[in-house]
Inverse folding.
């Protein structure tokens, strides 16, 4: 699988998690439940951001003449992770539900932008074999994480 296809498939998986989280938010009766949902999303986004940065953005950036094109994405990752952390941060009574909702909407827009910007750039810059090699590396990273978690 190409690295660009891995990006799209990760985003698709996360979008379906968001759908489930939004459904669970609708049924949640306490702030604690919302905070737990935000923690799940935060963990998944932290891992996804690390994977796409190491497996796609950094290798791509190393080949581009104009460096630093991915800085906007790194900054956004920090911003969204901070939004998700704020869901569980005092003071109590802060509207956890709407904070999480805003973060999920922003993340979906971020995925769209990444796909629109990074995929054409990667396909123009990498040789087809490199796209496949990076995709394999990303896939192995995911498999290794699953194996570690199962131990
Ligand atoms: Fe991202
Ligand atoms: Fe992404």
């Amino acid at each position: 699988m190409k690295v660009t296809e891995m990006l799209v498939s990760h985003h698709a998986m996360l979008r379906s998690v968001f759908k489930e989280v939004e459904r669970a938010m609708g049924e949640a009766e306490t702030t604690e439940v919302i905070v737990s949902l935000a923690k799940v999303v935060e963990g998944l986004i932290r891992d996804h951001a690390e994977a796409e940065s190491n497996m796609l953005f950094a290798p791509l950036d190393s080949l581009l003449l104009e460096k630093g094109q991915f800085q906007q994405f790194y900054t956004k990752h920090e911003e969204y992770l901070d939004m998700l952390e704020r869901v569980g941060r005092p003071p109590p009574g802060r509207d956890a539900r709407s904070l999480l909702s805003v973060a999920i909407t922003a993340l979906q827009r971020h995925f769209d932008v990444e796909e629109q910007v990074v995929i054409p750039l990667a396909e123009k810059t990498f040789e087809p074999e490199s796209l496949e090699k990076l995709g394999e590396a990303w896939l192995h990273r995911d498999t290794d994480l699953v194996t570690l978690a199962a131990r």
Observations:
- The chain has a mean pLDDT of 94.
- Residues 49, 52, 73, 77, 110, 114 surround fe (ii) ion (ligand 1) (CB under 6 Å).
